[in-house]
Structure formats: structure tokens, C-alpha cells
Fold this protein.
Amino acid sequence: MATLPRPEFVGREAELAALGECVTAALEGYPRLVICRGEAGIGKTRLAEELLDSARTRGVVGSRGAAAAADGATPYRPWRQVLSGIADSVDVTRVADEHSLTADLTWLAPGLFGDADRPMGDTESAEDRLRQFDALAMLLGRLTHQVPLVLTNGTQSCNCR
């Protein structure tokens, strides 16, 4: 099945320029966090897609995760998507192993860090979830020492490095 080309992106020159400056800063070693907020349907996801495309043309590793609006969505899905996208360019499992993060990351992305058949869901405690997200933050921090990253979640935020 052929993919239709995206329509031309117009009317967001200022936003794209600001995001481009964030990518430049990340490439120079100065991390940025950008929050793209607004009403549904105003183009946040498209802006994030344009950011990823632009960053990738500059050699930046980019990945996108999307939160599912439907009930019953798999826990941590956006993070699994982001980590899988990064793993295409960076050896995330090696970095996790080097920093003893694998055990905690297995719950977030079992296909990358452990048993893909491991049950996920309500079995972990609040303390376990805190450890998991601490491990994720540490992993992302360690990865940015190797390569600049642009991560988006497609719903409300765009994170530059």
C-alpha cells in the first residue's frame, strides 16, 4: 500500500525556527525541553513530525511515541515506542547493561531489555514505577552523552535532547 505524501507544512515558521534553534543548541551540548501545548487539532503532532524530520536531516537520532487515547492501552506504550526508535540507531541495551538499568527497564520495554512475554500491567508498585522512570531518565541521559536525541510524544510535548 502506497503512502500518500504529507501536505505542505505552512504557517508555523516561527515555531519551526525556535525548534531548529533547540536542535542547534542540543548539537552544541546544551539540552533543551520544549512543551508544545494547545487545543486538539491545531497541529502539535504535525509540528513534532516536522521537528523529527528536520533533526534527522542534521544527523540527530529521533524517535516518537504516541499515547493511546483508548482505554485498555498497553502500559508505557509511548516509552516503548521511543526506546525502540532509538534502538534503531543506538545500542540502548548495552548502555542499560553498563549502568545496571536493565532490570528496571524490562517493565517499560520488555522486548528490548528482557523477556518479551513478561506480563505487564498492575503488578508493579508505586516504588517499582519510580525506579523504572528513574532508570529511563538515567538511560536517556547516558544516551545523550553519545548522540543528540529528539524525542516527541505526539500529544503534548516535544523534547529536545
In short: The longest strand covers residues 61-64. The CA atoms of residues 105 and 132 lie 6 Å apart. The chain has one domain: 15-160. The mean pLDDT is 82.
